[in-house]
Amino acid sequence: MESNKFFFNPSTSHGNMFFLTNLNPVVQGSMINMEEESSKRRPFFCSPDDLLYDDVDYYDDQTPDKKRRLTHEQVHLLEKSFETENKLEPERKTQLAKKLGLQPRQVSVWFQNRRARWKTKQLERDFNLLKSSYDQLLSNYDSILKDNHHLRSQVTSLAGKVQAKEETATGQVPEPNQLDPVNMNPAIKTEDRLSSGSAVLDEDAPHQLRDSCDSYFPSIVPIHHHSGQDTNNNNGCGNDTGCFADVFVQGESFGLWGCWT
DNA sequence: TTGTGTTTTATTGCCTCC
DNA sequence: GGAGGCAATAAAACACAA
């Protein structure tokens, strides 16, 4: 960029910058002046007292063709003003500029840049929020997937037992597809297959079922206590699938709550 | 002291609104 | 069409490690 950027540029679309954007009337500094000036550099972080003491000197000694930072006092006031309203109406701009001893253009530029910084930060915050929500959903999804797998293997195992029981009862060798739990004997109702009221479930593998289910879904323990005729009993879950559904709904809801709170 | 990365101030060009 | 906002960018000022 050209060295005269602090002077009025007629080509600019914001033609309200008529003269030096910085106030200092001290005129062009030589290379020597610039070197002297660099030795006067104010540390970026210093106490407010230091600033109050040396701000004037700092500003008076700077050459006008150099970009210079606002004092902490100025920034503090601008920040306070930004807090109350992040947009700048013309009247407030003029007032602030007067109060701070800056060009109105400088004030509006500061607000512009401040809004940009705020937006960047906000995007960062939003990103982190979304990321943690995503992570939580992912972990919920994984655990549901595990549960699903576990329940499927239980169904397979229990179906095998039912099949064996039928075999011994009828003395028949089952068709090959009857061994497939998915294509089990259609004569057996779904409720009967899953019902814990079955003697097979209660006597042959009660421990296995109880243990495994307790560890995964403590909330559906009643499933093991109701009999076949309680299938529609409201004291239990109403029905077995209802119990499972509740658990899944719970799991999902938890994920969503965790997501947005 | 110097090289490098970050922050701040300022410009430019485009867009929208009145 | 002018004013003001925003995104992209330049460049000075500053921090900090080597």
Automatic annotation (TrEMBL):
InterPro entries for the chain: HD, HDZip_class_I_plant, Homeobox_CS, Homeodomain-like_sf, HTH_motif, Leu_zip_homeo
UniProt-listed PROSITE patterns: HOMEOBOX_1, HOMEOBOX_2
Protein known as: Homeobox-leucine zipper protein
Localization terms from the record: Nucleus
Similarity annotation: Belongs to the HD-ZIP homeobox family. Class I subfamily.
The keyword Heme belongs to this UniProt entry's keyword annotation: no
PANTHER family associated with the record: HOMEOBOX-LEUCINE ZIPPER PROTEIN (PTHR24326:SF574)
Gene Ontology process terms (BP): positive regulation of DNA-templated transcription
Function summary: Transcription factor.
One GO CC term on file: nucleus
DNA-binding region: 63-122
Swiss-Prot/TrEMBL keywords: DNA-binding, Homeobox, Nucleus, Transcription, Transcription regulation
Major place of residence: nucleus
Gene Ontology molecular function, alphabetical: DNA-binding transcription factor activity, RNA polymerase II-specific; protein homodimerization activity; sequence-specific DNA binding
Limits of the Homeobox domain: 61-121
Organism: Raphanus sativus
